[in-house]
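chain below, 300 aa
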Amino acid sequence: MAHLPFDQLEGEIWYDGAFVPWADAKLHVLSHGLHYASSVFEGERAYGGEVFKLDEHTQRLHDSASILGFEIPYDAETINAATRELLTRMKLVDAYVRPVAWRGSEMMGVSAQHNTIHLAIAAWEWPSYFKPEERLKGIRLDMAKYRRPDPATAPCRSKAAGLYMICTLSKHEAERQGYADALMLDWRGQVAEATGANVFFIKDGKIHTPTPDCFLDGITRRTVIDLAKRRGFEVIERAIQPDEMAEFEACFLTGTAAEVTPVSEIGPYSFQVDAISRTLMEDYHAEVQPQAAAKVAAAG
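prediction:
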């Protein structure tokens, strides 16, 4: 089924403090953010008309901009109000929300100290990031050629556009080989993350996940860790070597788009979709769905 290009969708986008028609949300081709990747963004999900953990996403957006050396000219209250109004105006209940901030076009060169900082927020309907039938049986991941960089060489704690260049390259190559995504190692050769999601492994009833010292400590990652601990599962954050994957029984990814997605294969390593993975899938669904969450609270 064909889908319209994103620039041809209908509706409105919040752009620098005002709601504008979707087709009019444009920037100049000489914007610094396009040429030099001075851009930060968030990926958010709305369930039942409300963005899950909106405050945390907005705070990370501000933090990401600060790490890149600029300040977003709108406070959290303004951004959150604009996001909620946008969902209402777009008549969206379950949706993906994308705030993005970037340096404008006043100066074109590596240095752009005085460029205007722009902010836009768009929202659209969003299906499962991976095909539903793939999620239930576990998705297949390739091993990426590119690695997450040393924190001394890149602002790894910022959700910055430039850091995703190697993610796009890795995911494209994985898809060409028939995989759904790719697992990236870090500059030391340790397990890091997928191209847009954090990774967890299970062995002997314990959950293992890489320490996020050179990639984002995802909001969904932290949520799932909390859910696992509520269930009494031990969660171990540590350095994980690639050859350890041969000993793990199960694996899953977490992310705003991916939610909780089991993995059946990473390169030469195979995994089962186990009871812990399925439980955390269900718990996360209950956590983000307002009606489901209310039922769980009432039952508790």
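The chain is about 30% helix and 25% strand. The helical segments are 32-36, 54-67, 76-89, 132-137, 165-176, 219-230, 275-288, 290-299.
thats it, cya
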